[in-house]
Recover the amino acids of this structure.
């Protein structure tokens, strides 16, 4: 297993600005059976710090279910609106290409972890089928706006 170099939010911002590379943090999303010890994640919330020529960095927030091209969120969060809970996350240095941001969520995570050198810790999602059509819309509750991040 690879050694993971985790950075605080502020360290990750400095890393992104200085190295013109990305850093990410991910949180699993569980369904109604979240209290079940055998529950598996149904999706994820992914926060990606990306280099930006104008601002130095931006924070991309992508959330949604696994095995679907439908997202509950795919937004840039302005620096002054980043929740404290996000600032408390640990980020992993990686790289990110623009076209990855349109991939199914599990594929995005697989590419981010492989680029970070920790891909051996993720399941092989490349052969899994999509479960929802591209026009499916997921409720805002899926991204956790009604729960603390």
């Amino acid at each position: 297993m690879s050694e993971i170099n985790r950075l605080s939010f502020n360290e990750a911002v400095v890393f992104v600005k200085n190295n013109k590379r990305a850093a990410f943090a991910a949180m699993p999303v569980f369904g109604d059976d979240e209290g079940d010890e055998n529950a598996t994640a149904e999706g994820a919330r992914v926060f990606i710090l990306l280099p930006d020529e104008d601002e130095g960095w931006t924070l991309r927030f992508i959330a949604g279910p696994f095995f679907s091209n439908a997202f509950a969120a795919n937004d840039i969060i302005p620096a002054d609106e980043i929740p404290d809970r996000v600032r408390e996350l640990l980020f992993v240095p990686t790289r990110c290409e623009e076209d990855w941001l349109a991939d199914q969520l599990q594929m995005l995570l697989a590419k981010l972890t492989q680029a970070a050198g920790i891909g051996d810790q993720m399941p092989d999602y490349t052969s899994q089928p999509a479960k929802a059509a591209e026009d499916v819309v997921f409720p805002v509750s899926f991204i956790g706006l009604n729960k603390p991040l």
